[in-house]
Amino acid sequence: MHANTAQRVGNAFLSLLGYVGNIGDNFLRKDVADTARGLITFLKGIHIGSGPYCIDADGHAVFGDTTAESLASADFEGCGWQVHAVGSRPHGVG
Q1: What is the mean pLDDT of residues 48-63?
Q2: Of all residues in the chain, what percent carry a pLDDT higher than 70?
Q3: Contact at 8 Å (CB) between 22 and 16?
């Protein structure tokens, strides 16, 4: 009777391990590289790495370097863009 119970418990445990192993595709991992197959929404923002880089809930971003394939805004037309420190616009700009 004891051997039968131990075998049933062992089989139940192995079944549980198999179930846990199969649900891995439904959750993002934080200990290994992973890919989300759907949209992820961050309600409070997101920090990137261990530095100051982030995007807050209002869409304000802090990045080290930025490369853009294109830039669009309702406030201007044209192509290309420049960023200047406040008060240091080149002659003829703005």
Answers
A1: 88
A2: 63
A3: no
Tens digit of each residue's pLDDT (9 = 90 or more) over 21-54:
556 667 787 888 888 888 999 999 999 888 889 9
What b/e readout covers 75-86, taking b as 16+ CB neighbours within 10 angstroms?
A: eeeeeeeeeeee
Dump the DSSP string for the chain. -HHHHHHHHHHHHHHHHHHHHHGGGGS--SSS----SS----SSEEE-TTSS-EEETTS-EE-S----S----TT--SS------TT-PPTT--
Average pLDDT, the chain: 76
CA 34 to chain centre: 10
Unique residue bearing structure tokens 């807050």: 56
Give the residue among 88, 71, 89 at the shortest CA–CA distance from 80: 71
